[in-house]
Amino acid sequence: MLKANRKGQWRYRIGDYRVIVNIQDENLVVLALEVGHRKNIYNS
After folding, report:
1. Which of 8, 11, 17, 20 is the most exposed place for a label (fewest CB within 10 A)?
2. Beta carbons within 10 angstroms of residue 20's beta carbon
3. What's residue 6's pLDDT?
4. Mind telling me which PANTHER family this protein's record contains (predicted)?
5. How many whole angstroms separate alpha carbon 6 and alpha carbon 17?
6. Number of H helices, E strands in the chain
7. Could you give the CA distance from residue 39 to residue 43 in angstroms, rounded to a whole number?
């Protein structure tokens, strides 16, 4: 499940891990900004 935040970034939950992405629909681009365990991913 994808969820948006105020910065226009999306987070995708995979078990205990999160992938933070920026989606550019007009260009069909999904850029993974960070991948990590959920206890660490939001600290950066």
Report:
1. 8
2. 19
3. 63
4. TOXIN RELE
5. 21
6. 1, 4
7. 8
pLDDT at 1: 63
22 touches 9 (CB < 8 A): yes
pLDDT at 38: 76
CB 18: neighbour CB atoms within 10 A? 20
Distance from C-alpha of 44 to C-alpha of 42, rounded to nearest angstrom: 6
Task: Decide: 14 and 24 in contact? Cβ < 8 Å.
Answer: no
pLDDT along the chain (44 residues), means of 10: 69 81 74 80 69
Report the first-to-last Cα separation within the chain, whole angstroms: 22
